[in-house]
Amino acid sequence: MKVLSVASEVAPLIKTGGLADVAGALPAALKAQGVDMRTLMPGYPKVLEALGDGRQILTDGDLYGGPAQILYGKAAGLDMYVLDAAHLFYRDGGPYAAPDGFDWWDNAERFAALCWMAARLCAEGHLHGWQPDVLHAHDWQGGLAPVYLQRMGVSHKVGSVMTIHNIAFTGSAGSDMLGRLRLPAEGYNSGGFEFYGRISALKAGISYADRVNTVSPTYAEELKTPEFGMGFDGTLKFRGSAFSGILNGIDTEVWNPVTDPKVIPYKALRGKAKARAALTEELGLDPDRGPLGVVVSRLTEQKGLDLLLHALPRLLERGGQLALLGSGDAWLEEQFLAAAQANPGQVAVRIGYDEPLSHRLIAGGDAILVPSRFEPCGLTQLYGLRYGTVPVVANTGGLADTVIPLTFATRTAGVATGIQFQPGSGDACVAAMDTLCDLWAQPKAFQQVQRNGMKHPVGWDTSAAEYAALFAEASKHP
Ligand code: ADP
């Protein structure tokens, strides 16, 4: 099975979110499943630099306003097709936004171009000795590729899968762009790529791909409701069993407490105590108080951190502590900084993005707190499981799918891996802090939950098998 993955960001080359992690991790994980996955991504300056001398595979004299070529080679260990189109991608700034923080004015054309060349690679693959069976599109940036497969007359030969990492970005363009985006006018309707009077590249992918998935089974169910679906719930429901959820995994080499060079490594809980001591010393926290809850997150309302502010007094009152690393909404940053100032030795806050510190927090914390209002998959609770840092999470999306909540039954059976509470409720978050502190007060029970978490599989093995099965379903050559 040959699969062409089409992604606008791929870790470690360029990353703004979880999409990059998935696109970067899947090719290696799928190898064991007999899937040969290659990746097509834009030729941002950093990517072209990492590729070095690629082999020219395909050229285009006028790709949405300029000449372009596809180069093939290895970058960051991946088999990579890079779309070298200087007029679209060779720019300073991020993948989607200019250095001033505003989205590029021509994002619709930039990623339409990526999709167009993806479809050409599939349509003409036989000329280049690698014929994809399935095209795998990620988020709205890949959403037009299944439409172009149909336009080029190969959708009966090449299957397509669309993966939704973030439904909030719709890839919207005015209906006057139909021609510019090389879209067939007959597709501009509610069963195609029309979305509230505009073109949506995400809707295109959802409507045209043979299979659609998102990054956890619970989030897939949630997306079919008006509360979470952001206007796509009807279309997703309409897709029936062609829409599913597959959990993300994490890189278990990078996130491995036994070998992690960013922390004092440990195999067992006795060793974790050293990482905890180092962290409390680094942050000026009281080593004798607990539990120490840690947060590594974007500071936004989606992440429910206002709920945590509401519950913080209870955690502190019960002897607990908080260490938070994140950046985002100014009012949340200010309130957490104020909490740190008001509670020296009990609350430590670091504003910013700091990969090594995120490892030290996960290793040194007693609990990882993830109070999200919605969460497609979530990664930090998975890191927490692996490092024996008990996840305290809202019962939503991927958080619901990855944490076995402490209940009378799971405690009796000795299988709980964390604590869950009702999403969006400040009072439920307070109650969760109580549960955490009650558990902490019984060291044996706390350690049992930690140990259960450390045994929980969080890598890609199971999910890679599910992706392989999805590609087989989408393939036109079963
Ligand atoms: P989302 O993609 O919605 O932000 P996830 O939990 O899926 O949330 O992924 C967030 C990733 O970013 C995790 O790997 C997390 O460790 C990392 N991260 C978030 N904020 C920071 C930060 N301030 N410093 C370091 N890493 C961070």
Describe the structure.
With 478 residues, the protein is α/β, with parallel strands linked by helices. The chain is 41% helix and 19% strand. The model has no long low-confidence stretch (mean pLDDT 96). The protein has a nine-stranded mixed β-sheet with strand order 3-4-5-2-1-6-7-11-12, with helices on both faces. The chain has a six-stranded parallel β-sheet with strand order 15-14-13-16-17-18, sandwiched between helices.
Bound molecules: adenosine-5'-diphosphate
Radius of gyration: 23 Å
Read across the widest sheet, the strand sequence of neighbours is 3-4-5-2-1-6-7-11-12
Strand-pairing-aware structural class: alpha/beta
Mean pLDDT: 96
Instruction: Supply the number of helical segments.
Output: 20
Q: Which stretches of 5+ consecutive residues score pLDDT under 50?
A: none
Amount of helix: 40-55%
What composes the largest sheet?
9 strands, mixed
Strand-residue proportion? 15-25%
Distance linking N and C termini: 10 Å
Shape: elongated
Question: Got a strand count?
Answer: 18
